Amino acid sequence: MLSTLLVVLPIFALIFAGWAAAKTRILGGQASTELNRFVVYLALPALLFDITATTNLHEIWQPAFIGAFCLASFIIFGLAFLSPSNKGQDLTTKAIDGLNASYPNTAYMGFPLSMLAFGSASMPLVAMATIITVCVIFAVAITLIELSRQKASHKAKLIFKTIISLARNPLLFSPALGIAYSLSGLPLPESAHTFLKLLGGAASPCALVALGLFLAASKPLTRSNISSISYLVSLKLVAQPVLTYIAAVYIFQLPPLLTHTAVLITALPTGTGSFMLAEYYRTDATITSNTILVSTMISVLTVSAYLSLIA
């Protein structure tokens, strides 16, 4: 548990830094929105391009691992998307709730915890899970949101307008360009790699500070909010890893290393991606921000319990 806490502690510290900056008025009321815009338009696209452009996709290709990970993730996405509490909500809210329940914090927590538990052999698997999380699950949520926001009288026009909007989204075209660059076989120049590392390295810290800023300005939670957060956290920390284990062992019959790495990754708390989307599309992020915070807190116990169980 101490090892897990040491990995999670910097996340709490960054959230608290944002909360304290808001409470002491070091940063103004619009700081959360502006900081999130920096992440969405600059830092995160740089990170996504860097990850996809510098990863040899052929070396980390594991179809069965991808199948187990995706199957469990999309079932959980669907359960959150179709939650009774979302009845009457717009497609944007439903899609973001889908992310709240299925989007693990792979980049920030997945690598150190997997290295701690399984060693360097698990690193290619974590890299693949990270790419799936930010390029596939994220893309599905963005597509649903864009579909709900386009206005057109004919389906063909609606699809065309959605495609154009998706093509302009930096969170989609940056990893697409990175994958294309990786498949080209061209080496990334050292100066470009350094630039992307510096800019992309700001993505997670800034997103967590923005989350703290938002939490400081949030109104008290209602009973309905608490019920929704509890449901989403349960899906994320319990249902998703259980489904991943079932898919890995009984459907795809993965060996132990692949099974336990997949389960550990899906047992991680909700990442900041859903919060960034909620802020980007200017929808209420109260449930999202608290889901991230609560799931991160509880994951210290659940992840530690899982690692103890398989030790």
UniProtKB/TrEMBL annotation:
<feature type="transmembrane region" description="Helical">
    <location>
        <begin position="290"/>
        <end position="310"/>
    </location>
</feature>
<keyword id="KW-0472">Membrane</keyword>
<feature type="transmembrane region" description="Helical">
    <location>
        <begin position="195"/>
        <end position="217"/>
    </location>
</feature>
<protein>
    <recommendedName>
        <fullName>AEC family transporter</fullName>
    </recommendedName>
</protein>
<feature type="transmembrane region" description="Helical">
    <location>
        <begin position="257"/>
        <end position="278"/>
    </location>
</feature>
<feature type="transmembrane region" description="Helical">
    <location>
        <begin position="229"/>
        <end position="251"/>
    </location>
</feature>
<dbReference type="GO" id="GO:0016020">
    <property type="term" value="C:membrane"/>
</dbReference>
<feature type="transmembrane region" description="Helical">
    <location>
        <begin position="64"/>
        <end position="82"/>
    </location>
</feature>
<dbReference type="Pfam" id="PF03547">
    <property type="entry name" value="Mem_trans"/>
</dbReference>
<keyword id="KW-0813">Transport</keyword>
<feature type="transmembrane region" description="Helical">
    <location>
        <begin position="121"/>
        <end position="145"/>
    </location>
</feature>
<keyword id="KW-1003">Cell membrane</keyword>
<feature type="transmembrane region" description="Helical">
    <location>
        <begin position="166"/>
        <end position="183"/>
    </location>
</feature>
<dbReference type="InterPro" id="IPR004776">
    <property type="entry name" value="Mem_transp_PIN-like"/>
</dbReference>
<dbReference type="GO" id="GO:0055085">
    <property type="term" value="P:transmembrane transport"/>
</dbReference>
<feature type="transmembrane region" description="Helical">
    <location>
        <begin position="38"/>
        <end position="57"/>
    </location>
</feature>
<keyword id="KW-1133">Transmembrane helix</keyword>
<keyword id="KW-0812">Transmembrane</keyword>
